[in-house]
Amino acid sequence: MLTFDPLIEQSGTRAPSPVLTGLEQPRALVSMISGAWSRRSPTTTHPGGGTPVLTIPGFGTSDLHLSVLRRYLQRLGYQPYRWNQGVNVGPTRHAMTGLRDRLNQIASDHQGPVALVGWSLGGVFARELAREQTDHVRHVITLASPIRLEHHDQSRARIAYRAVSAWHERALDLPLEADAPALPVPSTALYSRTDGIVAWRTCMDVPSPTAENIEVNCAHFSFPVDSQVLAIAADRLRIH
């Protein structure tokens, strides 16, 4: 548990402080550099056995931003896949249709369910897929995903998101998942109290025997490269 820090919004229900937001890029760079060796030489002894894993990038990012995650999982014997929809600019018709088709194709190729790993908005999409196509999904891992966002002011990305909202096939109803049932598959939600983009408590799921929350200490932009995050994700993929 973190000690009191005036930069951290302790309730976790309001957007992060501007200072934390400003530190996002430098902190992500530190995570990239400091974790290079551990990512290259994962210590786990549990191979992935070719399990398919579909990775979904966050808002304003693309498959490129999850390349470190995919390489890490590949070294452990998993078969990671890109989402192949370009830059994630929100729930456009092209992106959502393409993502559903992508999941269907991977599940068909492997003749079995697929694990989903979504970063930020990508995790919101992953949970939606799990509800729509339960038979094709085995496990959902969300990385700093505001799955319980109540209003846009809880995110520092709100201005950019609104700027492209005209492209979206539909608006995301807030609060997210307010009336949604629990996911029909096991899920793991990773969150950080030092997240500089979204209110950290919005990234937590309702705990249950099949839904867990795990706290880490890293920046929002660090999640796809942070060695602790990657190790936890790999461990949960092994379990499920």
From TrEMBL:
The residues that cross the membrane are: none
Q: Which UniProt keywords apply?
A: Hydrolase
- GO molecular function (one): hydrolase activity
AB hydrolase-1 domain location is 55-211
> What is the official name of this protein in its record?
Alpha/beta hydrolase
Biological source species: Gordonia asplenii
